[in-house]
Write a structure and sequence with these properties.
Layout: H1 3-23, H2 53-63, H3 67-74, H4 77-88, H5 105-113, H6 117-128, H7 133-153, H8 159-178, H9 184-201, H10 208-212, H11 214-233, H12 239-244, E1 247-254, E2 257-266, E3 269-280, E4 283-286, H13 287-297, H14 304-330
Antiparallel strand pairs: 1-2, 2-3, 3-4
Helix pairs in contact: 1-7, 1-8, 1-14, 2-3, 4-13, 5-9, 5-14, 6-9, 6-14, 7-8, 9-11, 9-14
């Protein structure tokens, strides 16, 4: 595999996590801390009773790396229960399915948490990426063009999603073309951090995500996302700053549907997009996120042959793209 192809795989994995953190991100003001022993029970969580709150709450959840709260706030309780069942049955990993390469996320964690991963990943980085700044910049540009074409042609996206994702791609591609991805010193410092964070999730074993269930898995992934953000900040991609810059305003509302304008800055680029929201049982939710979640809740079980093939594909992805992934996020 050429360095451009390897770099594309690595950069795409970086964009996957980063884009998913932002593009799915939009909802109300944070989760209240649990009361200690002997205290009165905490008040109920705020409810998104206004369209804009359906955006600001999810943003707050993502800034806190509270993926469990994000999943709870993103969908009505009955749909959340269906998704928990589908997750435990191995039929989905929603909301990770909002990421472009969600099927490789478990392999990504497994590759980072593998025995001797730190030494293997550092050696792979040195062999494939160290000092290859020109090739990495070229790969970032190529990836941006490929991703833009994919978003334009993917039928699963709504028009508002296409517009938002297209702007994200521009921002991520511009960042990757200037980030110090070929810096060996940064990689040697970052890789051990990601390896330790992945191991701490306890989600590296086969079927670990399904065995842990949705809520526990997302809870365990929170610290990993926090560490990943810290690593990316060292390369000039401050996701928390982007989330903190989000400004949401009501563009229009008709009964139980509305359109919310969101503006923020990502890696120095201005993003100005809209999201559709809708009211169900008195609470507002993101329409596209609901649509995706409902499809995932109804996802069929994989036949045994397909499941086995998926395991083999996951191992292959970990062997090829997995080692590239960590350095790409840690350069």
């Amino acid at each position: 595999m050429s360095i451009v192809r390897r770099a594309c795989a690595a950069l795409l994995s970086t964009a996957v996590l980063s884009t998913g953190v932002l593009s799915t991100g939009v909802l109300l003001i944070g989760v209240l801390a649990a009361a200690g022993c002997g205290r009165a029970p905490p008040p109920p969580e705020p409810v998104a009773t206004q369209p804009v709150q359906a955006v600001t709450q999810l943003v707050a959840d993502l800034r806190r790396n509270d993926l469990e709260a994000y999943a709870r706030h993103a969908v009505p309780a009955p749909l959340h229960a269906r998704l928990e069942t589908a997750w435990s049955e191995g039929r989905t990993v929603w909301p990770l399915t909002e990421l472009p390469l969600d099927d490789r996320f478990p392999s990504f964690i497994a590759a980072l948490a593998a025995p001797d991963a730190e030494r293997t990943l550092v050696a792979t980085y040195r062999r494939q990426f160290a000092g290859a700044d020109a090739e990495l910049r070229s790969a970032a540009k190529t990836l941006g063009l490929f991703a833009a074409q994919y978003v334009r042609s993917e039928p699963g996206y709504s028009e508002t999603e296409r517009d938002h994702h297209a702007q994200l791609i521009v921002a991520f591609s511009a960042w990757a073309q200037t980030a110090p991805l070929g810096d060996s010193k940064r990689a040697r410092a970052a890789i051990p951090q990601l390896v330790a964070a992945a191991r701490a999730t306890g989600l590296a074993a086969p079927d670990a995500f399904a065995h842990a269930g949705m809520d526990r898995s997302l809870r365990r992934l929170g610290p990993f996302v926090e560490r990943l953000k810290q690593v990316l900040t060292g390369y000039g991609l401050d996701l928390d700053a982007a989330l903190g810059s989000v400004q949401a305003s009501l563009a229009e509302q008709t009964g139980d549907t509305a359109r919310v304008r969101i503006r923020y800055r990502l890696a120095g680029e201005a993003v100005d997009a809209y999201v559709l929201v809708e009211r169900r049982d008195g609470r507002w939710y993101l329409s596209d996120l609901l649509r995706h979640a409902e499809a995932e809740a109804d996802a069929p079980a994989k036949p045994p042959a397909a499941a086995a093939a998926g395991v083999r594909a996951g191992k292959a992805a970990a062997a090829v793209a997995g080692p590239a992934t960590a350095p790409a996020q840690a350069r």
